[in-house]
C-alpha cells in the first residue's frame, strides 16, 4: 500500500513538473490614453506592472508603454506619484519604474512591431520583446475602446482583426508558448472575438454593448484613480505570492457584476490546458522550475582576459606631447573662419529631364538654325 | 599570495607546513613564466568624488546641486577593456563602440530664473539636450549619431530616438569641446534638443543606477524622486570628457560627471518659512560617506549672510570654510567633509540646518480679489524701500467683456480705474519739533506727527483710462431692419401666393342714378355705362 502511494506521489510530482512548458516570462503592458482625465488608465497599467514585478518578472522582461505622463504632470498635486486608492494609500509608480515607450512613442505601429519583433535594428534592448517558443507572455491593455477597436492616444485605433493577425504572426514565428491577454476598456470582449491562434487565453472587463466603469475619484487629485475591473484584479493579485497555487478559475471570478456593474468575460477555447491547471504565477510571475544538484564542477580560470593597457599606457606617456583644452570662445578664429561649402551634388534626373524637354520644344518650334547662337 | 593560475589552485589548497620549503621553488617557477603569464590585473585607477552645494537664493528659495565625478585613468579607445569598477560599463562601452570624444546629455524640467536666483553653475534647456563630439576616426558621423541616440533612449528611458536630421544641427562656432582637444573640426559635432521631453522618475532611476554607490550610501541617499520632482527646477545631466591625467598633461583620463540641480520653492516646499534643513528638503539625512568615494563633501554658500545685519545661522557649525572667486564674485562656503568622523557624531547623521536670525524684510501684503459685479480688487503692500533706488510695482490685468446693458452711452471713451495711493513715512533731513495745533498755522497741522524724525505724506497716481472691447451697438437695429425686410418680401409674397384666392364678380345692373346718367350720355354722344 505504501508502495502504491509513493508511486502515485512521484507520478503526481512528474505531472506537476510538466504542467506548464514555459521557461521564461514576459509582460507587455500598454496604456493607450493621453490627457490628465485619463489618469486611471495609467494607474491601471502601473498596478499590473507593480504586481508583475513583485512576483518576479524583471524590468528587462517587461515592456511598459505609457501614452502620457501623469506622475510629473504639472496638474499632479503630488509629483512623482500615481495612486490607485483614494486617500493616497498606495503609490503604484514607485521609485524603481522603467518606462520603455512613453508619450508619443506609444502608437499602433510600435505596439505591433514590439509584438511581431519587426523592429528597426537600432532599437535598444529594453524596447524589444525577445521572447522565444518557451515564453509565457502577459499582454495587458487599457484605454478607451469600442466594439472591435481600441483607441490609441485619441488619434488612431487598432482593430480586433489586426490584433488577431499580430498574434497569429507571433505564433507562426514561435514567439510564445502561451499567451494571456487582458483588456480593460469599454466593450472589451469584442477585442478577443477574432483570435484564431492556439494557446491564447483572454479576459475582458466588459461584454459587447457594455461600458467598463471607473472606481472612485480622489478629491485632492480631482480625477478617477482606477477602473473597477483592474482595481479588483489588483486586490486579487496583492494576495498572490510566488509560491501561490491559485489558478485561473479564481481570476475569472474576480469582479462579479455586483461589484463591476459590467460583466467580465473570458475566452479559453483556444487554450490547450484546462484553466484550473493554469497557475496565476504562470503568467504574472517568473516562477521557474529549478532542479538543485549536488554535483561540483571545476572551472578553468581563463588567463586570456587581462588589462594589457597598463604597459602600453606607460609607453604612450613618453611619446605624446602635452595636450591642452580647447578655447571656449575664440572670437578671432570664429570671425575669420570661412563658411563651410556645401557638398556639390549633380542635378537630379527630374531637373535634367525638364531642361531637356524645354530645349527640345524650343528647337522644334523655332528650328535648328538657332543652335549656333546658343553653343 | 593570491591564487592566480588554475594549475596553482591545487597547490594553494593543500598549504601544509611541509610545503613551506617547496614555496621558494614555486615562486621561482612563477617568475620564470614572466609577466605575460600574470593573469591578475593591476588595481584599476579610477576615483570618485561626490559633492553637494547648497545655495540659499535671494528670493527665499534654496538650490541644491549634486555632482558625482568618476575619473578613470584608462585608454578606452583600445578594445579589450572589460574590467569596470567605478566607471559604469554601460557608458564605457558606448565610448568605445561609437568612438566618442565627448558626450553631454541633460534632462530638465523648469527654467532657471536668473533674475531672481542669480547665475547658475550649469544651466540646461528645458526638455532633453544631447551634444556629442565624435573622434576623428569616425567615417559616418550621422549614422553613429542616430545609433547613439537610440541606445541612450534605451538606457535613460527617454524618447531620444526621436532625434533625427530634422532636429539635429552642426554648430560651427559654439559648443567647443569642454575636454582635451587637439583640433576642433566641427564636422564631428552634433547637437539636438527635444523641448517636449518630460523628466520623471523613470529617467532618474537609471541615472542613479550609474552611480557607484547607487542610492545606498553617501550623498546619493538624498536622491528620492518624490522630493526631487516637487521643485521649481530639476535638471539632471551626464557629462563625459577627456581630461588631463596630471599637471604635465601628457596622457588622458576619462571624466564622467553626473550633475543634478534642483531648486526648492519657499512657498510650496517650505510652507512660507525661510528655514531650511536637509530633512525638510530631501526628507532624509546623511549618515555616511560613500565608501568608494575618495572625497565626499557638502558646501553651503554663506557669502552674503555674513555681511548684512541679518545673519544666516548654519547648524552644525562648520569646521572649515572655502573662499574663492566663483562666476565673477567672491564667495564663501562652509565645508562639511563626510569623511571627517567628527561631523557625523554620536547622533549618527548629519542634518544641516539653515536658520535666519532676523525675520524677513517684506512686511505685509493684503490682497482681496474682485468678485464680478460685487466688489473690486484691493491690494495693500507694506514695502521697505532701500535708499537711492527705484522700485517699480506693476500689476497685470485682463480686460473682460461686459453685458450689453452695462455699457455707458459713450463706451468708446473708455472706463476709468481708480488711482493708486501711496502712503509714506519719509525721513526728514531736519528734525521737527512737535507742534501745538492751536498755535501753528493751518498748513502745518494737516497730519498728526508722532516724532520729528520723519513726516507722513499721502500721494496719488493718475487714474487709468482703459479701452474695453466695445461691441457695435448699431448692429441690433440693422439686424432687425434686415430681418423684417427679408421676412416681408420673401415670406410675405410666398404667403400671399399660397393663400390668395380669386373670385369672379358679377357686375351690378344699376339703379335710377345709372339710367339718368345714361340719358345724359346719349345726349352727349358718349357710349353708355
TrEMBL record, chain A:
Sample GO molecular function, one term: GPI-anchor transamidase activity
GO biological process: attachment of GPI anchor to protein; GPI anchor biosynthetic process; proteolysis
Name used for this protein in its record: GPI-anchor transamidase
Family stated for the protein in its record: Belongs to the peptidase C13 family.
Organism for this UniProt entry: Carlito syrichta (Philippine tarsier)
Domain of life where this protein originates: Eukaryota
Membrane topology: Single-pass type I membrane protein
Active site (record annotation): 144, 186
Positions of transmembrane segments: 344-363
This protein's encoding gene: PIGK
Keyword Transport: no
Automatic annotation (TrEMBL), chain B:
PANTHER family given in the database record: GPI TRANSAMIDASE COMPONENT PIG-T (PTHR12959:SF11), GPI TRANSAMIDASE COMPONENT PIG-T-RELATED (PTHR12959)
A Pfam family hit: Gpi16
The protein's name in its UniProt record: GPI transamidase component PIG-T isoform X4
GO biological process, one term: attachment of GPI anchor to protein
Organism name: Carlito syrichta (Philippine tarsier)
Keyword tags: Membrane, Transmembrane, Transmembrane helix
TM region(s), chain numbering: 477-498
GO CC, alphabetical: GPI-anchor transamidase complex
Keyword Transmembrane: yes
Amino acid at each position: 500500500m505504501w508502495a502504491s502511494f509513493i508511486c502515485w506521489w512521484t507520478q503526481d510530482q512528474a505531472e506537476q513538473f510538466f504542467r506548464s512548458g514555459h521557461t521564461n516570462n514576459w509582460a507587455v503592458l500598454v496604456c493607450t490614453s493621453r490627457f490628465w482625465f485619463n489618469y486611471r488608465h495609467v494607474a491601471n497599467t502601473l498596478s499590473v506592472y507593480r504586481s508583475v514585478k513583485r512576483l518576479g518578472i524583471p524590468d528587462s522582461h517587461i515592456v511598459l508603454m505609457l501614452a502620457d505622463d501623469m506622475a510629473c504632470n504639472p496638474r499632479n498635486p503630488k509629483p512623482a506619484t500615481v495612486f490607485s486608492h483614494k486617500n493616497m494609500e498606495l503609490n503604484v509608480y514607485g521609485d524603481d519604474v522603467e518606462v520603455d515607450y512613453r508619450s508619443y512613442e506609444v502608437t499602433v505601429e510600435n505596439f505591433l512591431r514590439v509584438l511581431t519583433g519587426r523592429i528597426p535594428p537600432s532599437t535598444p534592448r529594453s524596447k524589444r520583446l525577445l521572447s522565444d517558443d518557451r515564453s509565457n507572455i502577459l499582454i495587458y491593455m487599457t484605454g478607451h475602446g469600442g466594439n472591435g477597436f481600441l483607441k490609441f492616444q485619441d488619434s488612431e485605433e487598432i482593430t480586433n482583426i489586426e490584433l488577431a493577425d499580430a498574434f497569429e504572426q507571433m505564433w507562426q514565428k514561435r514567439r510564445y508558448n502561451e499567451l494571456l491577454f487582458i483588456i480593460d476598456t469599454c466593450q472589451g470582449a469584442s477585442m478577443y472575438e477574432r483570435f484564431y491562434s492556439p494557446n491564447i487565453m483572454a479576459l475582458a472587463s466588459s461584454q459587447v454593448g457594455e461600458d467598463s466603469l471607473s472606481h472612485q475619484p480622489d478629491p485632492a487629485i480631482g480625477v478617477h484613480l482606477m477602473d473597477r475591473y483592474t482595481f479588483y484584479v489588483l486586490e486579487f493579485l496583492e494576495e498572490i505570492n510566488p509560491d501561490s497555487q491559485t489558478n485561473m478559475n479564481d481570476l475569472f471570478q474576480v469582479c462579479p457584476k455586483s461589484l463591476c456593474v459590467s460583466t467580465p468575460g473570458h475566452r479559453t477555447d483556444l487554450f490547450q490546458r484546462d484553466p484550473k491547471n493554469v497557475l496565476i504565477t504562470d503568467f504574472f510571475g517568473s516562477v521557474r522550475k529549478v532542479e538543485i544538484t549536488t554535483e561540483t564542477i571545476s572551472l578553468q580560470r581563463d588567463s586570456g582576459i587581462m588589462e594589457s593597457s597598463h604597459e602600453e599606457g606607460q609607453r604612450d606617456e613618453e611619446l605624446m606631447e602635452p595636450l591642452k583644452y580647447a578655447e571656449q570662445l575664440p572670437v578671432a578664429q570664429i570671425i575669420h573662419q570661412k563658411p563651410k561649402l556645401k557638398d556639390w551634388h549633380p542635378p537630379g534626373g527630374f531637373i535634367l529631364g525638364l531642361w531637356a524637354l524645354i530645349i527640345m520644344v524650343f528647337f522644334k518650334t523655332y528650328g535648328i538654325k538657332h543652335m549656333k547662337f546658343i553653343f | 599570495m593570491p591564487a592566480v593560475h588554475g594549475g596553482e589552485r591545487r597547490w594553494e589548497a593543500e598549504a601544509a607546513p611541509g610545503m613551506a620549503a617547496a614555496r621558494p621553488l614555486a615562486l621561482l617557477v612563477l617568475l620564470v613564466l614572466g609577466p605575460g603569464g600574470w593573469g591578475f590585473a593591476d588595481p584599476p585607477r579610477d576615483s570618485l568624488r561626490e559633492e553637494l552645494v547648497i545655495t540659499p537664493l535671494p528670493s527665499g528659495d534654496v538650490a541644491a546641486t549634486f555632482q558625482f565625478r568618476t575619473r578613470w585613468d584608462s585608454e578606452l579607445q583600445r578594445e579589450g577593456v572589460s574590467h569596470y569598477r567605478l566607471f559604469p560599463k554601460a557608458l564605457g562601452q558606448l565610448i568605445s563602440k561609437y568612438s566618442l570624444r565627448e558626450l553631454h546629455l541633460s534632462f530638465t524640467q523648469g527654467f532657471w530664473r536668473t533674475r531672481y536666483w542669480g547665475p547658475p553653475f550649469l544651466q540646461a534647456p528645458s526638455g532633453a539636450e544631447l551634444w556629442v563630439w565624435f573622434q576623428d576616426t569616425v567615417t559616418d558621423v550621422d549614422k553613429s549619431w542616430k545609433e547613439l541616440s537610440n541606445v541612450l533612449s534605451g538606457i535613460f528611458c527617454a524618447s531620444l530616438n526621436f532625434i533625427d536630421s530634422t532636429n539635429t544641427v552642426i554648430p560651427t562656432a559654439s559648443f567647443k569641446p569642454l575636454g582635451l582637444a587637439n583640433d576642433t573640426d566641427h564636422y564631428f559635432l552634433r547637437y539636438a534638443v527635444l523641448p517636449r521631453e518630460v523628466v520623471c522618475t523613470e529617467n532618474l532611476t537609471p541615472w542613479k543606477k550609474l552611480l557607484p554607490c547607487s542610492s545606498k550610501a553617501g550623498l546619493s541617499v538624498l536622491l528620492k524622486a518624490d522630493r526631487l520632482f516637487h521643485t521649481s527646477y530639476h535638471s539632471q545631466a551626464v557629462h563625459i570628457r577627456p581630461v588631463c591625467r596630471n599637471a604635465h598633461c601628457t596622457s588622458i583620463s576619462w571624466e564622467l560627471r553626473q550633475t543634478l540641480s534642483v531648486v526648492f520653492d519657499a512657498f510650496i516646499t517650505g510652507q512660507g518659512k525661510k528655514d531650511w534643513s536637509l530633512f525638510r528638503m530631501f526628507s532624509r539625512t546623511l549618515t555616511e560617506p560613500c565608501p568608494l568615494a575618495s572625497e565626499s563633501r557638502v558646501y553651503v554658500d554663506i557669502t552674503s549672510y555674513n555681511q548684512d545685519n541679518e545673519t544666516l545661522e548654519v547648524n552644525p557649525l562648520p569646521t572649515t570654510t572655502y573662499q574663492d572667486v566663483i562666476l565673477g564674485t567672491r564667495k564663501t562656503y562652509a565645508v562639511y567633509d563626510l569623511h571627517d568622523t567628527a561631523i557625523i557624531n554620536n547622533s549618527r547623521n548629519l542634518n544641516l540646518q539653515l536658520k535666519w536670525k532676523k525675520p524677513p524684510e517684506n512686511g505685509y501684503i493684503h490682497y482681496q480679489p474682485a468678485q464680478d459685479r460685487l466688489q473690486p480688487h484691493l491690494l495693500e503692500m507694506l514695502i521697505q524701500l532701500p535708499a537711492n533706488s527705484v522700485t517699480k510695482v506693476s500689476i497685470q490685468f485682463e480686460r473682460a467683456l461686459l453685458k450689453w446693458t452695462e455699457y455707458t452711452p459713450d463706451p468708446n471713451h473708455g472706463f476709468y480705474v481708480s488711482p493708486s495711493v501711496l502712503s509714506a513715512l519719509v525721513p526728514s533731513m531736519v528734525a521737527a519739533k512737535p507742534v501745538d495745533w492751536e498755535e501753528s498755522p493751518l498748513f502745518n497741522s494737516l497730519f498728526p506727527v508722532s516724532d520729528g524724525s520723519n513726516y507722513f505724506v499721502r500721494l496719488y497716481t493718475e487714474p487709468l483710462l482703459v479701452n474695453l472691447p466695445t461691441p457695435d451697438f448699431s448692429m441690433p437695429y440693422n439686424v432687425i431692419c434686415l430681418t423684417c425686410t427679408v421676412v416681408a418680401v420673401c415670406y410675405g409674397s410666398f404667403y400671399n401666393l399660397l393663400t390668395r384666392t380669386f373670385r369672379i364678380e358679377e357686375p351690378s345692373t344699376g339703379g335710377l342714378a345709372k339710367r339718368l346718367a345714361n340719358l345724359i350720355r346719349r345726349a352727349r354722344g358718349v357710349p353708355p355705362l
